[in-house]
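Residues and backbone
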Amino acid sequence: APAIAAYQEALKRKPDSVAAHTALIGLHLAAADNAAAANTQWTALQKVAPRHPQTLFFDAVLSEQRGDLKHAREVTQQLLRGAPENPQVLMVAGQVELKLNALAQAEAHSAKAVQLLPKAQGPRAQLAQVQVRGGQADKALATLAPLLQEASPSVDVLTLAAQAHLMKGDSAAADAAFAASQW
């Protein structure tokens, strides 16, 4: 709440601040139950900077969340033409393609994000999710290996590992991963 108030105050002083608008959108999205506030803030950003890459990025993110996958795909493709090495754009593009069941494209975007951020959990987990969905259990476990070696792997990572083990028919390893995710 204090951060939101500070950014809102910044916008009162400088209404065309793309940084303040995008920070507010990010804060609203992080709250998870504030999609309406994020959309409202994005509309305000679109009025002051309609062609700015951040405006387009959040257009893709919000469109994907609303289920407008065709529009989200169009916007992410446009963003990738201008920033093909941006891991955040690649992640959104990968998520959109996954939801559209375009697994090869989802894997390509997610794998590129992993190349750019090899130690980050988000890209690895997304790539493993695509691989599990595509029936590539061994590839998914290889993708997850660095995350599974951490002291406390996340529940999402353990769940993906369990699913991959189940695909391989290794119910003991799947049970162990599910048990570890139940802590």
